[in-house]
Amino acid sequence: MSDGQGGTGGEGGRGGNADVDAFLDAVPDERRRTEARTLLDLLGRVTGDEPAMWGPTIVGFGRYSYRYESGREGETFVVGFSPRKAALTMYGLQSAYAPEETADLLERLGPHKLGKGCVYISRLDRVDLGVLTELAERALSRGRDSAP
User: Fold this and answer.
1) How sure is the predictor about 120, in pLDDT bands with cuts at 50, 70 and 90?
2) Which of 2, 84, 123, 145 maximizes the CB count within 10 A of its CB?
3) How far is CA 69 from CA 47, 66, 72, 73, 80, in A?
4) At residue 17, does pLDDT exceed 90?
5) CB crowding 67-84: b at 16 or more within 10 Å, else e
6) Of the candidates 90, 94, 67, which has an alpha carbon nearest to the alpha carbon of residue 3?
7) How many CB atoms lie within 10 A of CB 22?
């Protein structure tokens, strides 16, 4: 179950690196598999965290706990991705609640689509990896600032 921020609401399982490697090795499309490995390296460098599986299809980095005013709480990753057939789905790169925080970078990223809290990239070789790195750095700062 998604919490709208790219997290699993604390309901997803966390695996280790072996699970991440097995998941990425099983991506059927060679280009998408290569792109996923590139994101794995990029996000690992930016966060300094080991990747972990959050549910069956999302690779996440870092973690933080959250609590809504309603009292609902959970745990999620700071940034993550899923190599889906139609696009690479990036989680945590933009704030669904403050999109102006990343608007400048998203304008320079290259071809992408936005969802609530998600960035969809159809081809990684068509976006600026430097800008993607900056987005991940901002997300990391935002995620760590909001950690309890």
Assistant:
1) very high
2) 2
3) 28, 10, 7, 9, 25
4) no
5) eeeeeeebbbbbbbbbbe
6) 67
7) 11
Residue 137, both tokens? 């750095």
Task: Name the token pair of 28.
Answer: 């059927």
> Given a cut of 60, is residue 138 above it in pLDDT?
yes
Residues 119 and 88: beta-carbon distance below 8 Å: no
- If DSSP codes are grouped into helix, strand and coil, which group holds residue 87? coil
The DSSP code for 14 is: B
Burial classification of residue 143, based on how many CB atoms lie within 10 Å of its CB (0-12 exposed, 13-18 middle, 19 or more buried): buried
Angstrom distances, CA of residue 81 to CA of 39, 61, 65, 68, 70: 8, 9, 19, 24, 28
Classify residue 19 as left (phi > 0), alpha (psi -120 to 50) or beta: alpha
Strand partners, 83: 88
